[in-house]
Specification:
4-stranded antiparallel beta sheet, 3 helices, about 40% helix, globular
């Protein structure tokens, strides 16, 4: 049976300071439908996200309701206008394990 979770990587042209401002704007309340969000620094200075969502629909809803409004307001404040939404590379989730995953499953 195929996993219905929506999993992807996305490279974004922002630095850690901008990322932290966006996360602060999103707030402490968990984003509905997001099972895992990882943000890592890339050697070129940009960031890479690895996200696992309950479904693509949950991801779309979260971006419409919480994430894009937060990103847009921070970008407006800092005067940054990206050329468009960064591309998303969809992945097939086979497994998720480790002590961090086990701790959140309790």
């Amino acid at each position: 049976m195929a996993d219905t979770r929506y999993t992807y990587v996305q490279d974004v042209p922002i630095d850690e300071g901008v990322y932290r401002r966006i996360i602060d704007r999103i707030g402490d309340r968990p984003v509905d439908g997001c099972l895992l969000h990882l943000c890592v620094r890339q050697p070129n200075g940009g960031l890479r996200y690895l996200d696992i969502w309950e479904s693509e629909e949950a991801c779309t809803r979260a971006f419409d309701e919480r994430i894009h409004p937060a990103v847009s307001s921070v970008f407006q404040e800092i005067g940054f206008r990206p050329d468009g939404e960064p591309g998303v590379e969809r992945l097939e989730l086979l497994d998720a394990s480790g002590s961090m995953v086990a701790a959140t499953a309790r």
